[in-house]
Design goal:
450 residues, four-stranded antiparallel beta sheet, 31% strand
């Protein structure tokens, strides 16, 4: 035989040997058994492997086990916790009947016993005996796997719901607080106008949106009251705003507030409950407007700070004036002598605004006549003003009167001050915006302002 032929034949034999060797090498890593899944270089049982629970790479949290392809705090169904994780001792060849009891080569585990064939109603799927009524990878038959999150019950794949949850068909629900399944699957908590339906303790409730209230306790109309603007339910149901003293008000942003004050009054403390508490015509600390104080030595008259001489005293109906009240009246009159004035005013507790003569020369005549005890009669600001004598005082001297009625010593209704009349026996000391004889109890004030 030629050398070249030998070489060729040797090369052919070597090629065949290499091919055989390669085939042997490829076939040295057998495919995974039917009940196992290839994950990388390993065949794993994704039903029980905590590193590949349900799918390759799906690892359970620390302290959890993998049972039937689901991570759980313990083993589900009839599975048992062994060193490798949760196993089915009725069909696991490595833990057949109990942990670490492995079947021999060629045997299968059936009903917890190593055998050549499956028994006890189990079905052979690949090399394993499985209960197709409960096995999630072979549910109802071999290789009929349930979807992730499902378990096999009586051979049918079903959604698995953990403790405290109810299977409501396509989802698990906590019927104690799920508004779509409140108390039972499919029972929906309805919302209403200005309200949201919630589930609490397996019962539906209405929760009002901010600024609204269910003040009639009826669910049909939702939260029907806007508590930001309702004067009957201001800031909450059953919280009405009080009537505003000397003004009007309402509910703004859930709080009772003054909306406007009557002329001559102010809400100077900014408290809705006290209303318009200040008389801006007579209050020196708030003269004409809130927080506008008159200088020391000045009074507030008609909302203007003026230098004033003031007589003020309180009288009781059917009781004559006292010697002290008469003495104060005479002292007031004496303070007017020789001065000029821009206004004169008669007012009192029955009419805090009173009547005014705002003409300087006429006001001076009235006040100077009152001081000197001389008769005066002038027409000012639509009224007849008079000064003169009416009776005698406790010292036997003429009792001087001032009025804006035009008639001296008259009992006609109007504005009159005569504090010294027949002290102490005559109860006809005058009145402001009332009868002027035996008038109701009140305070009389006479003001000469400059």
């Amino acid at each position: 035989m030629h050398r070249s032929s030998l070489v060729a034949r040797a090369a052919g034999i070597l090629s065949v040997a290499l091919v055989v060797a390669c085939v042997d090498l490829v076939q040295s890593t057998p495919p995974c058994p039917e009940e196992l899944t290839p994950c990388g270089d390993a065949c794993v049982d994704t039903r029980f492997d905590p590193s590949h629970c349900g799918a390759c790479g799906s690892a359970c949290a620390e302290g959890q086990a993998c049972s039937l392809g689901q991570c759980a705090g313990g083993c589900l169904g009839a599975t048992t916790m062994c060193q490798d994780g949760c196993v089915d001792p009725k069909g696991d060849r490595n833990h057949c009947g109990e942990c670490d009891h492995a079947c021999q080569a060629g045997e299968i585990c059936s009903e917890g016993q190593c055998a050549l064939d499956c028994g006890g109603g189990a079905t052979k799927c690949g090399e394993a005996c499985v209960d197709t009524t409960a096995n999630a990878k072979h549910c109802g038959g071999c290789d009929l796997a349930c979807a992730e999150g499902q378990v096999c019950v009586e051979g049918v794949c079903q959604l698995y719901c953990g403790a405290g949850a109810t299977n409501c068909g396509t989802s698990c629900a906590n019927v104690a607080q799920d508004p779509a399944h409140c108390g039972a699957c499919g029972k929906v908590c309805e919302s209403g106008p200005n309200a949201v339906g919630i589930c609490a303790g397996a019962s539906c409730e209405l929760v009002c949106l901010p600024g609204f209230g269910n003040c009639n306790a009826a669910s049909g109309d939702g939260c029907e009251i806007n508590t930001k603007v309702s004067s009957l339910h201001c800031g909450g149901c059953g919280l009405p705003c009080p009537a505003i003293q000397n003004g009007s008000g309402g509910c703004t942003d859930g709080a009772c507030k003054v909306s406007s004050c009557n002329a001559g009054f102010g809400n100077c403390d900014n408290v809705g409950a006290t209303g318009c508490e200040v008389n801006l015509n007579t209050t020196a600390a708030h003269c004409g407007m809130c927080n506008k104080a008159c200088p020391v030595g000045q009074l507030c008259s008609g909302g203007t700070c003026v230098m004033e001489s003031l007589y003020s005293s309180s009288f009781t109906q059917n009781v004559g004036s006292t010697a002290a009240q008469c003495n104060d009246w005479n002292a007031f009159r004496a303070s007017l002598v020789g001065k000029t004035f821009s206004t004169v005013k008669l007012r009192g507790s029955n009419d805090a605004v009173g009547v005014t003569c705002p003409t300087a020369n006429l006001a001076t005549q009235i006040c100077q006549g009152l001081g000197a005890g001389t008769a005066v009669s002038v027409f000012c600001d639509g009224r007849n003003w008079s000064v003169g004598d009416c009776g005698v005082d406790h010292n036997g001297k003429a009792a001087v009167e001032v009025n804006a009625n035009g008639n001296m010593c008259s009992c006609s209704a109007g504005y009159t001050a005569r504090p010294c009349i027949d002290v102490p026996n005559n109860p006809n000391w005058g009145g402001m915006n009332t009868t002027t004889c035996t008038a109701p109890s009140q305070t009389l004030e006479v003001v000469c302002g400059s």
